[in-house]
Write a structure and sequence with these properties.
Elements: H1 7-20, H2 32-70, H3 76-85, H4 92-101, H5 103-113
Helix pairs in contact: 1-2, 2-4, 4-5
């Protein structure tokens, strides 16, 4: 009895990977072994960077809040302490948006907690 290799499934699997690597540089887009390795590495980077993205945004929000707070004579850490003491629950994303796009509203928040 001849060996069954299920070429249909193998080809479909390869086509899926080669379609995903479309646009990669050099042999990474059309040589199966290279494309497979690049595809798998890309998935690893994607998994890792979904976590890193959250860290990066938090850092950005903190920088924006700090810049806005210092315009009103308060540091970031002091502002966050005052907000907690005044029981104002605004997250960093919202505070950063206020500091950037609505400086009057941000000023009102700072004045309220001072």
């Amino acid at each position: 009895m001849p060996r069954s290799v299920n070429a249909v499934a193998s080809r479909a699997r390869r086509k899926k990977v080669l379609k995903a690597t479309k646009g990669y540089f050099g042999r990474g887009k059309n040589v199966w072994t290279v494309a497979k390795n690049k595809y798998e590495k890309g998935l690893q980077y994607a998994y890792r960077d979904r976590k890193v993205k959250k860290r990066e945004f938090r850092k950005l929000w903190i920088q924006r809040i700090n810049a806005g707070a210092r315009l009103h004579g308060v540091s970031y850490s002091q502002l966050m302490g005052l907000l907690k003491k005044a029981e104002i629950e605004l997250n960093r994303k919202v505070l950063a948006d206020l500091a950037m796009n609505h400086p009057d509203a941000f000023k009102a928040v700072v004045e309220k907690v001072k």
